[in-house]
Specification:
By secondary structure, this protein is mainly α. The protein has six helices and two strands, in the order ααααββαα. A hairpin with a 7-residue loop joins strand 1 and strand 2. The mean pLDDT is about 90.
Length: about 160
């Protein structure tokens, strides 16, 4: 185990402040997701699956059950139970893959998409207002920084 790090220079202090801000953001996201879980009557894994489907949908990427399993780091058996639960509650549908008739893709239902954005839409709009305060170069830097942090925390 490494020793606790203490800032020694002004740059170190700036780094610490950034890391503290990231921790505060993470805590705020946890609280937001906790509220959404209760409002939408689902567990954390269900909500993570919906978030993944929303993100992939925005990128126009098909999601197969094995993609969901890999993303959530759960077994294929757990993925089957998850999909049974989400399809049973009307959140997702299993459809034939558009190019491989033997495979399936998982898609959000219109009702699930509406519910997700009903719970998250106001917060997303407020986040856009904050992001809009930055110019394109600053946004590119922030995007690169957050992407690099994500790669460190969740290496693929």
């Amino acid at each position: 185990m490494s020793e606790r790090w203490s800032p020694q220079t002004p740059h170190d202090l700036s780094v610490m402040q950034v890391l503290q801000a990231i921790r505060a953001l993470s805590d705020a996201m946890d609280r937001m997701h906790g509220g959404m879980k209760g409002d939408m009557d689902m567990n954390a894994t269900d909500l993570a699956a919906l978030r993944m489907l929303i993100m992939r949908e925005q990128r126009e990427e098909a999601v197969r059950p094995q993609d969901l399993a890999r993303h959530l780091r759960i077994s294929t058996a757990s993925t089957t139970k998850l999909l049974d639960r989400l399809s049973g509650s009307g959140h997702v549908e299993r459809r034939p893959h558009p190019r491989d008739g033997r495979a399936q893709v998982i898609v959000l239902t219109d009702g699930s998409r509406r519910a997700f954005f009903r719970h998250f839409g106001e917060r997303l709009q407020k986040m856009r207002v904050v992001a809009d305060r930055y110019d394109d170069d600053e946004l590119a830097l922030i995007t690169r920084f957050l992407g690099e942090l994500g790669d460190v925390l969740d290496p693929q």
